[in-house]
TrEMBL record:
Protein's UniProt name: MarR family transcriptional regulator
Subcellular localization(s) per the UniProt record: Cytoplasm
Pfam family, one: MarR
Domain HTH marR-type, first and last residues per copy: 10-140
InterPro entries in the cross-refs: HTH_MarR-typ, MarR/SlyA-like, WH-like_DNA-bd_sf, WH_DNA-bd_sf
Biased composition (Basic and acidic residues): 139-161
SUPFAM superfamilies: Winged helix' DNA-binding domain
C-alpha cells in the first residue's frame, strides 16, 4: 500500500474490524433473543459454562470487560435466574459468580448457535477457526502494543491446555484475583 492510500477508509483495519464486528454480532441477536440474552451476556455465559463459579474480577478479564461494565451484565443475568453472586468463602471482599440450574440448562439451547453462525456466514469450521486465531493474534499484538504484554494470556492458555488435556485451547488472558 502506498502512503497516499494510508488514509483511505477502505484501507483502514479499524474500519473493517468495526463493520465486521457489528455485522457478525448482529447475526447473534435473533438467536439469543429467545434465550433472553444480549450478546455481551452470552459471552459471560460462555465463560461461565467453561468454569463456574468464577471470581467476578477473573470473569471480567476472561471476557475483556472492565469490572464496572461487567457488574450490571451479571446483575441482569442474576435477575433472569441464570447466575447467582455470592461472597467467596475464604474472602468476604471477593464476589463469586456461579451458574444456577437454569443457567446450566441454558447451555443446551446455546449449542445450536455456533452452527447457525457458520451457516449464516457461509464459512467452514476451519475457515472460521483460522479467522478466530488471526483475531486472537491481533488482540495479543494490540495488548503488547498497549504495554500489556503476552505473558498473562500465554499462562492462561498453557494452564487451560494442561487442565483440559488438549493442545489447541484458546482462552482470553486472565489470572486469578
Amino acid at each position: 500500500m502506498s502512503s497516499s492510500n494510508f488514509l483511505r477508509l477502505d484501507e483502514q483495519v479499524c474500519f473493517a474490524l468495526a463493520v465486521a464486528a457489528r455485522k457478525v454480532i448482529g447475526l447473534y441477536g435473533p438467536l439469543l433473543l429467545p434465550m433472553g440474552l444480549t450478546h455481551p451476556q452470552y459471552l459471560v455465559m460462555l465463560a461461565l459454562w467453561e468454569e463456574s463459579p468464577r471470581r467476578q474480577g477473573e470473569l471480567a478479564r476472561a471476557v475483556h470487560l472492565e469490572p464496572a461494565t461487567l457488574s450490571p451484565l451479571v446483575a441482569r443475568l442474576e435477575r433472569s435466574g441464570y447466575v447467582r453472586r455470592v461472597h467467596a468463602s475464604d474472602d468476604e471482599r471477593v464476589r463469586m459468580v456461579d451458574l444456577t440450574d437454569a443457567g446450566r440448562a441454558l447451555r443446551e439451547r446455546a449449542l445450536d448457535i455456533p452452527p447457525s453462525i457458520l451457516e449464516a456466514l457461509d464459512m467452514s469450521a476451519d475457515e472460521l477457526a483460522s479467522l478466530r486465531d488471526t483475531l486472537h493474534d491481533l488482540i495479543d499484538r494490540s495488548d503488547a502494543g498497549a504495554g500489556e504484554g503476552r505473558s498473562r494470556r500465554d499462562e492462561a492458555v498453557r494452564g487451560r491446555e494442561q487442565s483440559s488435556g488438549t493442545g489447541s485451547a484458546r482462552s482470553p488472558r486472565g489470572t486469578e484475583d
